[in-house]
Design brief:
This protein has 124 residues and is mainly α. It contains three helices and no strands.
Length: 124
């Protein structure tokens, strides 16, 4: 089972957050992460619905969700490192930060639910 430690705040690990104009690298971070998280959330919603309808966590949509979630984790690590290497920081006044946080929280809810169900099915 994929181990996950993607807390909503984990996407902010790229150093401290401060108020400066956004660089192209910061813009890339926000757009890439938002797109990835939105895509994973869409799959998470579909997986959650499939589980409610009695489908196993091994169903195609849930496998796709797990893969997408893993991609988000990897991408977050990579982009955070790129920002750190470039000595860039996320601007705290940027409204995209709140949207990203909110989306990441929703993603974590889907992941928590999925992994709880996957763990239950492995115990049977």
């Amino acid at each position: 089972m994929l181990k996950y430690a993607f807390a909503a705040g984990a996407i902010l690990m790229a150093g401290s957050v401060h108020a400066t104009p956004a660089s192209s690298q910061v813009n890339h971070y926000f757009s890439t992460m938002q797109l990835s998280i939105d895509s994973a959330n869409d799959l998470g919603a579909k997986c959650s619905e499939a589980i409610k309808q009695g489908k196993p966590t091994s169903s195609g949509i849930c496998v796709s969700f797990e893969q997408s979630y893993s991609i988000v984790l990897d991408q977050s690590e990579r982009l955070n490192q790129e920002l750190k290497d470039a000595n860039q920081q996320l601007p705290k006044s940027d409204p995209r930060l709140a949207k990203l946080h909110s989306s990441a929280k929703q993603l974590n809810k889907y992941a928590d639910s999925y992994y709880a169900k996957a763990g239950d099915s492995q115990k049977k």
